Amino acid sequence: MSPPDQPQRQPPAPGDAREFRTTHWSMVLLARRDDTVRAEPALAELCRVYWYPLYAYVRRLGRGPEDAQDLTQEFFARLIEKRWLDRVDQERGKFRSFLLTAFKHFVAGEWHRERAFKRGGGQPLISLDGGEAEDRYKLEPADPLTPEAIYDRRWAMTVLDQALARLEAEQRSAGHAERFEAVKDCLLGAEADTTLAEVGARFALSEGAMKSSVRRLRERYRGLLRDEIAQTVDGPEGVDEELRSLLAALRRA
User: Fold this and answer.
1) pTM
2) Which residue ranges make up each domain of the chain?
């Protein structure tokens, strides 16, 4: 989903992202050395949500689907098992930037020196769906975006999808799942098949009430988007900067 007045996007696959609210990059940084019980599950959840931008990055480098899946899978396994977070400066850093920098180093050197994880050998810590990843990658535009640009764009879309999934979960919990589905196109900036007046008639609401409902949903969406971004930076001061980066990545789409 795009924030209001941003380019139209496809909605994410259904899923409940409520548990992600407690997974903070800052908590991972603080806990990484002395509390692996908290740090490793938090990092695993961040990796589970944000692995696709790296897959798209390495595919744009020219690697094939199986190679890209292996590289991404092994990178995350080592990130957790080998405690690469110990190298991160606790006082600075965005998860997006850290992840790409570490992955670049891995692709350039570690993978070629030692391939400890073999396809089909051992149980990976992060389970990646290679078929789903390649299906998603085939939908990427054929324009000549750099690998870094496609990574940033996919990162931005992932954050937007997480915010939308949380909003959808909230509406479902409040008993408004059907109404939310009916107005989702308005939030996504897509051309709606029906007017708000027609939608309102289905739920015994006036057009004005529906407009107010959509306005509140958009405001809530903006708040959830900021919260999602806050979970991947090292402090509140980084939220605005990262939001600007996210919107810039979407404008390049």
Assistant:
1) 0.74
2) 18-251
